[in-house]
Amino acid sequence: MTWSNVPGGPPQSSPSGSSDAQRAAWEQGGTTLFPAAKLADRISTVLLLAFGTVMTVVTAIVGIIAVISATATCDASTGCSPGAYFGGAAIAVSGAFVIGVATVVLAVGAWIRRRSSWWIAAIGFVLAIACITWGGIVFAGATDAGTTSSSVGSTA
Question: In whole angstroms, how far apart are CA 29 and each of 5, 7, 13, 24, 26?
Answer without folding.
Answer: 11, 15, 18, 8, 5
